[in-house]
Design brief:
By secondary structure, this protein is α+β, with helices and mostly antiparallel strands. Helix content is 38%, strand content 23%.
Length: 406
Amino acid sequence: MDRTDDSFEIKAGTGGDVAGMFAEFSTAFEEFKRTNNQRLGEIEKRGSADGLLEGKLDRLNAVLDGQKSAMDRALADKSRPLLDGKSGGHGGEYKDAFSAYVKRGEEKALSVGVNADGGFVVPAETETEITRMLTSVSPIRAIAGVRQVSGSVYKRAISLTGPATGWVGETAARPTTNSQTLGELNYPTMELYAMPAATSAFLDDAAVDVGQWIADEVNAAFAAQETTAFVSGDGVNKPKGFLASTTVAEASWSWGNLGYVATGAAGALPTTSASDVLIDLVYALKAGYRQNANWVMNRKTQGSLRKLKDADGNYLWQPAASADGKARFMGFELVEAEDMPNIGASSLSVAFGDFKRGYLIVDRQGVSVLRDPFSSKPYVLFYTTKRVGGGVADFDAIKLLKFAAS
């Protein structure tokens, strides 16, 4: 038994062919199901499961998470396009000028590419690559609504109630009806920065694609900061995350709040019929939102829910049908966001909703880079900035699961 576990653990950490990795993932999940079925059988017979069995299940859970992460990294590397300089608003001449600026600090006479504070605006193809990579790395950006704006604040009008209507006879009088109620949501863009460093020798290497290098370095720095802000940011010098919204029990929901369904147990799912509260959460969402809904939770929470079955003995969590697909839970796609809180007393560890309509990310057009060869010799620093905002767009499109008695 232990030998099987070890073989799974070794393969979870190895790279290689994505199809082969997916086959290993599927095999590990089958072993997970067999082990969990054995655990549930012991609980039903004796009231508890053997500790060794529980330990094996935890290891298999970790293996599944590791294998999925390895597949995600392999797919990201495989799908990353090369920057060839043939696309973009300013063409190859501007990309060459940008390259000369990054490598040697030469500012050629292309004023369209020089921002008011000094430095260069990143070529369009590099900027697009950074945004695309952020989409693939940041799980919230991949499912949320995204707008590009040219100003510092994006304002959006929203109809809270429609105009009043009524039935009338053919010749009856038409009294004036109440007008619709409008509201406005504001999304200020906040500055996000990264400062990758390189030696002059690295930049002088003719083989270096500086656009790709900046995209890679900035992507790693931006993605982690963005995801945290979109989930739990307080709105001060950063986007406001959806978990920072005021939350109320779903029965008391009103616009401006996110509704939650309580599990009925502090820091845990109910001991019996645990899936019932998850069904309640699904149907707290209106039908129009459920069509495009996603689950959002972190790895540990997913590991707990992976053990659940329905009344017919079918697992509620199902692996992706292909290596580049997403796992599904109760028939809806599951997105893993590590910034979601772990299960604990009164934690909001599970979100379910149509994030495309429920959360809006606002990108101000343009990514800028300022070359600094003086502050940290012998390194050249590249102060790279973009402006990003975000916040809840539709308070009825996202529901939360609260691990609390009420």
